[in-house]
Amino acid sequence: MLNYKQLHYFLRVAKAGSIARASEQLRLAPQTISSQIGTLEDALGTQLFSRVGRRLELTAAGQLALSYAEEIFQIGRELEETVRNRPGKGDILFRVGVADVVPKSMAYHLLAPAVGSAERVRLICREDKLERLFAELAIHKIDLVIADQPLPAQLGVKGYSHTLGRAQIAFYAVHKLAMRYRKGFPQSLNGAPMLLPGAGAVMRGALTRWFGEHQVEPQIVGEFDDSALMKAFGKAGTGIFPAPVILADEIRRQYDAEIVGRADGVAARYYAISVERKLIHPAVVAISKAAKSELFAEDSVSAAS
Description:
alpha/beta; 6-stranded mixed β-sheet; two-stranded antiparallel sheet; 12 helices; 10 strands; about 45% helix
Protein backbone atom coordinates (compact mmCIF):
# COMPACT_ATOMS: atom_id res chain seq x y z
CA MET A 1 0.00 0.00 0.00
CA LEU A 2 1.20 3.53 -0.82
CA ASN A 3 2.77 5.34 2.14
CA TYR A 4 1.50 8.93 2.07
CA LYS A 5 4.21 10.21 4.41
CA GLN A 6 6.84 8.98 1.95
CA LEU A 7 4.86 10.51 -0.91
CA HIS A 8 4.78 13.82 0.99
CA TYR A 9 8.55 13.75 1.45
CA PHE A 10 9.00 12.98 -2.25
CA LEU A 11 6.77 15.95 -3.19
CA ARG A 12 8.71 18.34 -0.96
CA VAL A 13 12.09 17.21 -2.33
CA ALA A 14 10.80 17.48 -5.91
CA LYS A 15 9.67 21.06 -5.24
CA ALA A 16 12.79 22.05 -3.29
CA GLY A 17 15.25 20.47 -5.74
CA SER A 18 17.41 18.90 -3.04
CA ILE A 19 17.11 16.77 0.08
CA ALA A 20 19.07 19.32 2.12
CA ARG A 21 16.65 22.14 1.32
CA ALA A 22 13.62 19.92 1.92
CA SER A 23 15.04 18.77 5.26
CA GLU A 24 15.32 22.40 6.37
CA GLN A 25 11.71 23.06 5.38
CA LEU A 26 10.45 19.89 7.07
CA ARG A 27 12.86 20.17 10.03
CA LEU A 28 13.94 16.59 9.60
CA ALA A 29 17.35 15.00 9.22
CA PRO A 30 18.41 14.59 5.56
CA GLN A 31 19.08 10.91 6.27
CA THR A 32 15.46 10.41 7.32
CA ILE A 33 14.10 11.93 4.13
CA SER A 34 16.62 10.10 1.94
CA SER A 35 15.73 6.79 3.57
CA GLN A 36 11.97 7.35 3.17
CA ILE A 37 12.31 8.26 -0.52
CA GLY A 38 14.49 5.20 -1.06
CA THR A 39 11.75 3.04 0.49
CA LEU A 40 9.18 4.69 -1.79
CA GLU A 41 11.34 3.98 -4.86
CA ASP A 42 11.66 0.35 -3.77
CA ALA A 43 7.88 0.10 -3.36
CA LEU A 44 7.28 1.60 -6.82
CA GLY A 45 10.07 -0.40 -8.39
CA THR A 46 11.69 2.57 -10.10
CA GLN A 47 14.07 5.49 -9.53
CA LEU A 48 12.33 8.82 -9.02
CA PHE A 49 15.39 11.11 -8.96
CA SER A 50 18.71 11.32 -10.76
CA ARG A 51 21.59 13.48 -9.52
CA VAL A 52 22.79 16.26 -11.83
CA GLY A 53 25.64 18.13 -10.19
CA ARG A 54 24.46 19.18 -6.75
CA ARG A 55 20.80 19.02 -7.70
CA LEU A 56 18.29 16.22 -7.86
CA GLU A 57 16.25 16.06 -11.03
CA LEU A 58 13.13 14.02 -11.61
CA THR A 59 13.34 11.01 -13.86
CA ALA A 60 10.49 10.34 -16.30
CA ALA A 61 8.90 8.11 -13.64
CA GLY A 62 9.48 10.86 -11.07
CA GLN A 63 7.67 13.44 -13.22
CA LEU A 64 4.73 11.07 -13.55
CA ALA A 65 4.74 10.41 -9.80
CA LEU A 66 4.87 14.16 -9.11
CA SER A 67 1.74 14.83 -11.18
CA TYR A 68 -0.11 12.12 -9.27
CA ALA A 69 1.21 13.31 -5.90
CA GLU A 70 0.07 16.88 -6.52
CA GLU A 71 -3.38 15.63 -7.49
CA ILE A 72 -3.60 13.29 -4.49
CA PHE A 73 -2.78 16.02 -1.98
CA GLN A 74 -5.05 18.52 -3.75
CA ILE A 75 -7.95 16.06 -3.45
CA GLY A 76 -6.98 15.53 0.20
CA ARG A 77 -7.20 19.27 0.86
CA GLU A 78 -10.57 19.42 -0.87
CA LEU A 79 -11.80 16.43 1.15
CA GLU A 80 -10.77 18.15 4.37
CA GLU A 81 -12.49 21.38 3.35
CA THR A 82 -15.65 19.61 2.18
CA VAL A 83 -16.00 17.62 5.41
CA ARG A 84 -15.27 20.70 7.49
CA ASN A 85 -18.02 22.58 5.62
CA ARG A 86 -20.51 19.71 5.65
CA PRO A 87 -24.26 20.41 6.21
CA GLY A 88 -24.90 21.40 9.78
CA LYS A 89 -21.46 22.91 10.15
CA GLY A 90 -21.27 26.13 8.18
CA ASP A 91 -21.54 26.54 4.44
CA ILE A 92 -21.99 23.77 1.89
CA LEU A 93 -19.14 23.84 -0.61
CA PHE A 94 -20.52 23.77 -4.18
CA ARG A 95 -17.95 23.47 -6.99
CA VAL A 96 -19.29 24.14 -10.48
CA GLY A 97 -17.64 24.05 -13.88
CA VAL A 98 -19.26 26.16 -16.60
CA ALA A 99 -18.53 25.36 -20.24
CA ASP A 100 -16.93 28.36 -21.93
CA VAL A 101 -19.57 28.28 -24.69
CA VAL A 102 -22.41 28.91 -22.21
CA PRO A 103 -23.27 32.65 -22.11
CA LYS A 104 -22.14 34.16 -18.81
CA SER A 105 -25.52 35.81 -18.26
CA MET A 106 -27.25 32.45 -18.76
CA ALA A 107 -24.79 30.78 -16.37
CA TYR A 108 -25.63 33.42 -13.79
CA HIS A 109 -29.38 32.87 -14.12
CA LEU A 110 -28.89 29.11 -13.84
CA LEU A 111 -26.59 29.23 -10.80
CA ALA A 112 -28.18 32.09 -8.83
CA PRO A 113 -30.86 29.84 -7.22
CA ALA A 114 -28.10 27.75 -5.62
CA VAL A 115 -26.75 30.73 -3.70
CA GLY A 116 -30.26 31.94 -2.89
CA SER A 117 -31.47 28.56 -1.62
CA ALA A 118 -32.43 27.84 1.97
CA GLU A 119 -29.07 26.14 2.54
CA ARG A 120 -25.90 28.16 3.14
CA VAL A 121 -23.94 27.52 -0.04
CA ARG A 122 -20.45 28.71 -0.89
CA LEU A 123 -20.16 28.69 -4.68
CA ILE A 124 -16.82 27.98 -6.35
CA CYS A 125 -17.25 28.54 -10.07
CA ARG A 126 -14.74 28.10 -12.88
CA GLU A 127 -14.99 28.27 -16.65
CA ASP A 128 -13.16 25.93 -19.02
CA LYS A 129 -13.42 23.70 -22.07
CA LEU A 130 -15.96 20.91 -21.70
CA GLU A 131 -13.38 18.11 -22.04
CA ARG A 132 -11.36 19.39 -19.08
CA LEU A 133 -14.49 19.94 -16.98
CA PHE A 134 -15.71 16.41 -17.65
CA ALA A 135 -12.31 15.06 -16.60
CA GLU A 136 -12.49 16.99 -13.32
CA LEU A 137 -16.05 15.77 -12.75
CA ALA A 138 -14.83 12.19 -13.15
CA ILE A 139 -12.35 12.56 -10.29
CA HIS A 140 -14.83 14.54 -8.15
CA LYS A 141 -12.89 17.80 -8.28
CA ILE A 142 -16.15 19.53 -9.19
CA ASP A 143 -19.74 18.69 -8.27
CA LEU A 144 -21.53 19.84 -11.41
CA VAL A 145 -20.95 20.91 -15.00
CA ILE A 146 -23.24 23.40 -16.75
CA ALA A 147 -23.08 22.66 -20.47
CA ASP A 148 -24.87 23.19 -23.79
CA GLN A 149 -24.78 19.47 -24.56
CA PRO A 150 -25.20 16.19 -22.67
CA LEU A 151 -22.23 14.14 -21.52
CA PRO A 152 -20.81 12.32 -24.60
CA ALA A 153 -20.89 8.55 -24.11
CA GLN A 154 -17.57 8.06 -25.92
CA LEU A 155 -15.64 9.93 -23.22
CA GLY A 156 -16.04 7.02 -20.85
CA VAL A 157 -16.82 9.36 -17.94
CA LYS A 158 -19.44 8.08 -15.51
CA GLY A 159 -22.01 10.82 -15.14
CA TYR A 160 -25.61 11.76 -15.80
CA SER A 161 -27.04 14.59 -17.90
CA HIS A 162 -30.05 16.37 -16.40
CA THR A 163 -31.93 18.62 -18.81
CA LEU A 164 -32.50 22.10 -17.39
CA GLY A 165 -34.42 23.53 -20.35
CA ARG A 166 -34.36 24.96 -23.83
CA ALA A 167 -34.32 28.58 -24.98
CA GLN A 168 -35.38 29.74 -28.43
CA ILE A 169 -32.76 31.73 -30.31
CA ALA A 170 -33.23 35.15 -31.89
CA PHE A 171 -30.95 37.50 -33.82
CA TYR A 172 -30.08 40.83 -32.18
CA ALA A 173 -28.54 44.07 -33.41
CA VAL A 174 -28.25 47.73 -32.50
CA HIS A 175 -31.25 49.81 -33.58
CA LYS A 176 -29.79 50.99 -36.90
CA LEU A 177 -28.94 47.47 -38.06
CA ALA A 178 -32.17 46.01 -36.63
CA MET A 179 -34.27 48.47 -38.63
CA ARG A 180 -32.32 47.69 -41.79
CA TYR A 181 -32.49 43.87 -41.58
CA ARG A 182 -35.83 43.33 -39.84
CA LYS A 183 -37.78 43.99 -43.03
CA GLY A 184 -37.92 40.85 -45.16
CA PHE A 185 -36.43 38.66 -42.43
CA PRO A 186 -35.00 36.03 -42.74
CA GLN A 187 -34.07 36.57 -46.42
CA SER A 188 -32.76 40.00 -45.40
CA LEU A 189 -29.88 38.23 -43.64
CA ASN A 190 -28.35 37.31 -47.00
CA GLY A 191 -25.06 39.23 -47.01
CA ALA A 192 -25.74 40.76 -43.58
CA PRO A 193 -22.76 41.16 -41.19
CA MET A 194 -23.01 38.28 -38.73
CA LEU A 195 -21.28 37.49 -35.44
CA LEU A 196 -21.44 33.80 -34.51
CA PRO A 197 -20.39 31.46 -31.70
CA GLY A 198 -17.21 29.46 -32.28
CA ALA A 199 -17.20 26.06 -33.90
CA GLY A 200 -17.20 24.36 -30.48
CA ALA A 201 -20.70 25.60 -29.63
CA VAL A 202 -23.65 23.32 -30.38
CA MET A 203 -25.65 26.38 -31.43
CA ARG A 204 -23.20 27.07 -34.25
CA GLY A 205 -24.16 23.89 -36.10
CA ALA A 206 -27.88 24.55 -35.59
CA LEU A 207 -27.55 28.07 -36.99
CA THR A 208 -25.56 26.87 -40.00
CA ARG A 209 -28.34 24.40 -40.80
CA TRP A 210 -30.96 27.12 -40.32
CA PHE A 211 -29.18 29.42 -42.79
CA GLY A 212 -29.10 26.58 -45.31
CA GLU A 213 -32.81 25.79 -44.86
CA HIS A 214 -33.72 29.43 -45.49
CA GLN A 215 -31.20 29.77 -48.32
CA VAL A 216 -29.45 32.76 -46.80
CA GLU A 217 -25.71 33.33 -46.63
CA PRO A 218 -24.72 36.07 -44.19
CA GLN A 219 -21.28 37.63 -44.18
CA ILE A 220 -19.56 36.18 -41.11
CA VAL A 221 -17.42 38.98 -39.71
CA GLY A 222 -16.52 37.36 -36.38
CA GLU A 223 -16.51 34.04 -34.49
CA PHE A 224 -16.30 33.97 -30.71
CA ASP A 225 -15.88 31.37 -27.98
CA ASP A 226 -16.80 34.07 -25.46
CA SER A 227 -20.43 35.10 -25.95
CA ALA A 228 -19.96 38.28 -23.90
CA LEU A 229 -17.23 39.41 -26.29
CA MET A 230 -19.50 38.60 -29.24
CA LYS A 231 -22.24 40.81 -27.73
CA ALA A 232 -19.71 43.59 -27.09
CA PHE A 233 -18.89 43.64 -30.80
CA GLY A 234 -22.62 43.61 -31.49
CA LYS A 235 -23.09 46.63 -29.23
CA ALA A 236 -20.45 48.45 -31.28
CA GLY A 237 -22.55 47.85 -34.40
CA THR A 238 -20.13 45.37 -35.97
CA GLY A 239 -22.86 42.89 -36.79
CA ILE A 240 -25.93 40.87 -35.89
CA PHE A 241 -25.58 38.19 -33.21
CA PRO A 242 -27.68 35.27 -31.89
CA ALA A 243 -28.78 34.85 -28.28
CA PRO A 244 -31.68 33.31 -26.32
CA VAL A 245 -35.01 35.11 -26.49
CA ILE A 246 -35.42 34.87 -22.70
CA LEU A 247 -32.42 37.22 -22.34
CA ALA A 248 -33.95 39.89 -24.62
CA ASP A 249 -34.57 42.47 -21.86
CA GLU A 250 -31.09 41.99 -20.42
CA ILE A 251 -29.46 42.27 -23.85
CA ARG A 252 -31.41 45.45 -24.56
CA ARG A 253 -30.21 47.03 -21.30
CA GLN A 254 -26.58 45.91 -21.46
CA TYR A 255 -25.86 45.94 -25.19
CA ASP A 256 -28.41 48.40 -26.64
CA ALA A 257 -29.52 45.63 -29.01
CA GLU A 258 -33.02 44.58 -30.07
CA ILE A 259 -34.46 41.54 -31.77
CA VAL A 260 -34.18 41.49 -35.56
CA GLY A 261 -36.07 38.22 -35.88
CA ARG A 262 -36.39 34.76 -34.39
CA ALA A 263 -34.58 31.69 -35.66
CA ASP A 264 -37.62 29.42 -35.58
CA GLY A 265 -36.66 25.85 -34.75
CA VAL A 266 -33.28 26.79 -33.29
CA ALA A 267 -32.97 26.49 -29.52
CA ALA A 268 -30.10 26.42 -27.07
CA ARG A 269 -30.34 23.56 -24.60
CA TYR A 270 -28.72 23.56 -21.21
CA TYR A 271 -27.76 20.62 -19.03
CA ALA A 272 -26.62 20.02 -15.48
CA ILE A 273 -24.16 17.12 -15.58
CA SER A 274 -23.34 15.35 -12.33
CA VAL A 275 -22.15 12.01 -11.03
CA GLU A 276 -25.57 11.60 -9.40
CA ARG A 277 -28.29 9.67 -11.21
CA LYS A 278 -30.81 11.27 -8.87
CA LEU A 279 -30.17 14.87 -7.89
CA ILE A 280 -29.38 15.03 -4.17
CA HIS A 281 -27.04 18.00 -3.59
CA PRO A 282 -29.33 20.80 -2.31
CA ALA A 283 -27.71 23.41 -4.56
CA VAL A 284 -28.18 21.23 -7.67
CA VAL A 285 -31.80 20.54 -6.71
CA ALA A 286 -32.39 24.31 -6.38
CA ILE A 287 -30.84 24.94 -9.81
CA SER A 288 -32.93 22.27 -11.53
CA LYS A 289 -36.18 23.33 -9.87
CA ALA A 290 -35.76 27.03 -10.66
CA ALA A 291 -34.70 26.37 -14.26
CA LYS A 292 -37.78 24.30 -15.02
CA SER A 293 -40.34 26.32 -13.08
CA GLU A 294 -39.05 29.85 -13.70
CA LEU A 295 -36.23 30.46 -16.17
CA PHE A 296 -37.38 28.17 -19.00
CA ALA A 297 -41.08 27.92 -18.09
CA GLU A 298 -42.33 30.40 -20.70
CA ASP A 299 -40.20 28.94 -23.47
CA SER A 300 -41.39 25.42 -22.59
CA VAL A 301 -45.00 26.54 -23.01
CA SER A 302 -44.17 28.12 -26.38
CA ALA A 303 -42.45 24.92 -27.53
CA ALA A 304 -45.43 22.80 -26.57
CA SER A 305 -48.02 25.02 -28.27
